[in-house]
Amino acid sequence: MHAWAERVSRDWPAFHTRTRGGWRFGLADGITKRANCALVRDPGADVEEVTRFYRAYGLRPCAQVWPGEEEVDARLAEHGYAVVEPTLVLARELRERPRGPGATGISDSPTERWTELFSQTGVSADHAEGVVRILSRVDAVYGVHGDGDGRGCAVLDGESVAICAMVTARAARGRGVAGAVLADLLVRAYDRGARRAYLCVVADNEPALRLYRGAGFAEVSRYHNRVLAD
């Protein structure tokens, strides 16, 4: 399995995993592709295994493809799996304690406002509940900007921290809310022992890329999903 695939799947875990036929399958009630996809363990893995597995659970078959898995990628394409959401992995070192404005309230569990901000993403209540369930399976802290217009999460794993679930209210975008939340989460992560940070961002999300690159993050890997076409 690709090293970054292993890291990302550990920090955004499925509820259940199965390993067979050269794949590691994740299941999380269909909540997010990242937790409901097949990861390559064997370059010779049979694509039909992905189709059979997810069809059996009533889910759309999905595989996550990383650099070095081009042969598997080609077989997925031949079987009608289309590329969805090319994604970049960005990372930075935390050699010194970052500077944060202290504008973010940070807690060990999601507050009511943290959860309310799902409304800005257009997802269903069931999806929102599922994301909270995923994050409850890891060591995470939750940040909400002081004015309530932005939020984020930091998943802590020893000297590594994953930044995820960043949301800014539509009316507050462009005001520095997300940058403040990000900076404050990195400060808390550093204080908890993190010395490296990373995040995943959809490759065509230019506003998010500007924010993260401005905060010192740079591309270290990338992946895309292959989803079976209807």
Features:
single chain; 230 residues; alpha+beta; Aminopeptidase; eleven-stranded mixed β-sheet; 7 helices
How is this structure best summarized?
The chain has 230 residues and is of the alpha+beta class.
Word description of this protein:
This protein has 230 residues and is of the alpha+beta class. An eleven-stranded mixed sheet has the order 1-2-3-4-11-5-10-9-8-7-6, sandwiched between helices. The chain is 30% helix and 33% strand. Strand 9, helix 6 and strand 10 form a beta-alpha-beta unit. It has two domains: 86 residues, no CATH class; 99 residues, 3-Layer(aba) Sandwich (Aminopeptidase).
Write the layout of secondary structure elements.
Elements: H1 3-11, E1 16-20, E2 23-27, E3 38-40, H2 47-56, E4 62-65, H3 70-78, E5 81-93, E6 104-107, H4 112-116, H5 125-135, E7 140-145, E8 150-157, E9 160-168, H6 177-191, E10 196-202, H7 206-214, E11 218-228
Parallel strand pairs: 3-4, 9-10
Antiparallel strand pairs: 1-2, 2-3, 4-11, 5-10, 5-11, 6-7, 7-8, 8-9
Percentage of β-strand residues = 25-35%
Total domain modules:
2
Q: Compute the separation of the termini in Å.
A: 28 Å
Specify the overall morphology. Answer: globular
What's the CATH topology label of the largest domain? Aminopeptidase
Low-confidence stretches: none
Radius of gyration: 18 Å
Decide which structural class fits the backbone: alpha+beta
> How many beta strands in the DSSP annotation?
11
CATH architecture of the largest domain: 3-Layer(aba) Sandwich
Let me know the average pLDDT: 97
As a percent range, the share of helical residues equals 25-40%
> What is the highest CATH level, the class of the largest domain?
Alpha Beta
At the fourth level of CATH, the homologous superfamily of the largest domain is: Gcn5-related N-acetyltransferase (GNAT)
Number of helices: 7
Helix/strand order: HEEEHEHEEHHEEEHEHE
